[in-house]
Queue: 3 jobs
Job 1
Amino acid sequence: MVCARQVFRCFKWLERAGDRITGAAGPYFVALAVILISLCSVSFFTVVQPGFQFPWLSTPPCILLAVNLVMHYYYVCTVPPGFVDDPPRHSGSNFMWASPSRPQRPLRTSGVRWTSPEIEIVRAHITRCKRCGQMRPERAHHCRICNKCVLKYDHHCPVRINQCVGLHNERHFVLFMAYLVLATLCFSFLGYPYALDALGMTYLPWTHPLPQLCFILSYILSVVMSRGETSVEAQDHEVYRNIAKGRGEAFINSYDMGNLALFFNVGPKGYPLYTLFFPFRIMPYSDGSSWARREGLQRHHGVREGEELTDEEDEEEP
């Protein structure tokens, strides 16, 4: 028992050391990501795009794709995720902010900017974080690297964005990943013949201004970069699913509305659909104190009171 406790403490020390190292190296990772995105963009527009048969038709969508990729990456790196102790946020008035489809109500009591009869809004349960002492609503988690509780915490991403993904930048992160996958797939497919040229496999002279090595590196990067992310809630829900299965019950995620319009905050009562295709900033539908749930569910089905996972369980010793 003593040996197991020492091993546990050793792993926790290594974990905290890793957190400090990744936190300190975060700005360098972001700088590297900016360089790689720039390299891939230059490679595409100097080598692949000039070979399009109908450039007047195909170039504008490529430019729009690149602009969305770059701007959503800028947003997800610069927009704070939303900490529990932050003051209330309001939308901006400059050209980077989209206007809602209709005036949205102020956040006074419900904690949401709009809703509809088919959506049930439930006030979030409040608990106290044992790490920082903050009172926080459900779906907020404590980030070890930031040492703060983050609203609708998804994960801390030191490699790509050097901060947490939370309530206020989650939408930009998802759109950045979507446009990243789309851009890398297009580059991988359209750049394949040019990659063969750069490798010398076609015996054709390389006449492009970009060095062959730079194009090969950017092409390989595009092929391997098409991957997604998981979240802390997805990990929790897997645990809940096993708990419910052990009792012969089915786990139902009460937050899963099957409603992407609500997540992206678009539609008649949210923001226009064009905000999905142009990189405007918008506000989330909730301030983190209330959440839309499935009708009739005040908590996850199959999970009983007291079985919800907390951040503190990671610190328990065997």
Job 2
Amino acid sequence: MSSEESSSSSEEDVPLAALKSGKPKDSSSSGKNATSSRNQRRRSATNVVSSYKEESEEEEFEFQDDEDEDDKPIASLKKKKTNEKITPVKKAKTKTKPSKAATNDTPKKKTKNSKTTKKSVSETKVSSSASTIATVASELYSKSTKGKLISEFLCRWWYAYTWPDPSTFDTVPPNCDTLDGFPGVFVVTSGDEIGKIIDKRDPSTCPCFSNMVRKTSDELKGLLLKAIENQTSILIQHEGKGTLVEKDLDALKKWATKVNTKKADKEAEQVLRAANLKLK
């Protein structure tokens, strides 16, 4: 049994290449080859183990370094980063002082005296009064009773009489049409003068200031009272009694009835004489 076992073990130690070629080798050479192959295997195994140990040691070293950094406080790491930042260098600004010549050229403010301001105010008053042109209408309207009679009547003249008189323009001129809203006024619609305005109204009876100022205060008072009465009656017909307009008309009627017409005419003459104005 021992010889068989030794032969089987020797056969197992023989390489496959030798068996394939069919050339049996000696047991001594085969034993040497087996031992050499075992030694090579052991060396390669030891090399693999040593390399694995070196890699594991390097990983442990790196892991320790990472742990050391993790154990450090965050404030110390921030300080390192701030220390590493480069602070920019600021350039110093140079202030340029103005030269003496420039300071001397600047004009000095002049202080106004109270006397000069008073003179300027008085001059403006004189110029403003001189710029306003005084007329007969402006003087009578603002300074006389007759002027108030005229203004109040012209606000409601159509309640006192009809103007223009329809009898003055019974027939329409040839090649003309009536202008709506303006009785007595016509427009040429054919011929060589198309668009021309023809006014047939009597200007001497026109309800305007130039005609009313030639009337006496007594005439103006009568026209005004007539206009107030007609306006009040028409107002009551449309809106009834007790309106604010009716109260205003009643107050105006009381004032007009109390007017002294002779005194009003003398007052108007004095106002025009003081302003060096005359009726044309």
Job 3
Amino acid sequence: MPASCSEARGRSMIPASTRLLRLGPRHFCTSQPHLLDAKHSIYVSQSSNPYFNLTFEDWLFKEKAVREPLLLIYRDKPCVVIGRNQNPWKEVNFPALRRANIPFIRRRSGGGTVYHDIGNTNFSIHLPRSSFDRHITAQVVLRAVRSLDIDAHVNDRNDVCIVKDRAYHHGTMLISSRLNTLGDVLHVSKETLVTRGVASVRSPVKNLQEFNPLVSHEAFVRAMVQAFREEYSIEEPSWDWAFGQTPEFTYSLSRAFGWGNVTANIRSRHGVILSCSVTAEGASDSGELEALGKGLEGQKYGFLNNQLEQGSSESAHEVRQWLTDEMSN
């Protein structure tokens, strides 16, 4: 596969204070790391700090329920990442690294040495060890790339980490990376240095934008998320699950309009409006407003049918829009 996970030899990491956006069955966004959990299926990091991203990847690997698939996507600021069992003096060109003023980082998982920058997108797919197949996960990536109108293929070199009952496949997709920097910092001529560590397999690489100039990080993320969902049957939550499980609650609100003051008392259970009483002081059409509230009963809270009968008063339209806005926030 041109510029694929295995050929790019890439990984990434990100800062602990940065925001994370979780996509998929549930969407999640936070700037407070202590609020993170491993209950979701798809995570897209908005951070570019490699130390955070690699730490977060390892944390998800350990904390995610064993039998549930997980996808993590992230990008890093320029850095070189080496595998757990690699020799940095064999893998990294330290003079070039110092000239470029970029760090090298050892990750907890295996695999080869890779270069990261904002021009490449890193991913890892976590699965139960019993169902883990690196050829299948490679096909997920392949489908994502092909959906971007790029004719790609996959080879046999894929980074895999297996611990206890869980495994994951991680890689880097070169999109618009600085390949000259990549070549400089990973070019090492130490043939006489013999190491017991794992040596990287070097391969020629290219950016996806050389094959399709319109490809971007965002486009690859969307394609990867879609391919992951299709392969592992990850679906968006139904209304019944997302809202229909809500316990009973009441909501009282009021607003002053130019023609009078309106108070609404709403009672809802399992996401459905059980009752809605609307009272208006100073309104000439208070009866119509009371009927408006009555008409909301049985509708889904936050998903109102915003149509009123023809001939409804202007005040009825205003109250209906107000209630719609309040229940949508």
